[in-house]
Amino acid sequence: MIGKLKGVIDAIGEDHLVLDVHGVGYLVHCSSRTLQRLPGTGEAAVLAIETHVREDMIRLYGFRSEAEREWFRLLQSVQGVGAKVALGILAVLEPGEVAQAVASGDKAAIARGPGVGPKLAARIISELKDKAPAATPIDPSLARVAEAGSEEGAAPSAVADAVSALVNLGYPQMQASAAVAAAMKSAGEDATTQVLIRLGLRELAR
Q: Where is this region: Domain I (predicted)?
């Protein structure tokens, strides 16, 4: 199985590219977002690869990061989501945004993917909310404030306390973090723990 390819981009199509690796051209299917962010033809590129093997074909899918590939795999574990739909979701949402949408129950964000209706979006969130990859980044604003509160000698931050409170109520860590991040965006970084918990619970109830 092929896990990574490093070579020179020979050609770029609407939904794929040809990567020349030591004279062998590999046709790799990618999301439109990935294709837009890669360098042009004649330039070097490295892609994480997911290999699908069938009786009549071998198809390669390429990603700019391991997190993107992990979400490609995870999305396809949901009934009704194939490679095309998974790539479509990753074309409109970064891996961290997918994690945020799943954790916060944002069906509208998931439904932005081509071929994803409200019912499928709800199923994706329901089945994946506790399975998000551990390496998926949490909202940067949440991480920044939480880190500030954990510095030596600093008082525990309202964000960290709010996340801890939601986890103690039984919510998964990622889901609690996403809810508090959304709460902080609406209430501001000076919001108290109580405000973040209240708004976080409101996010989780959506």
A: 1-64
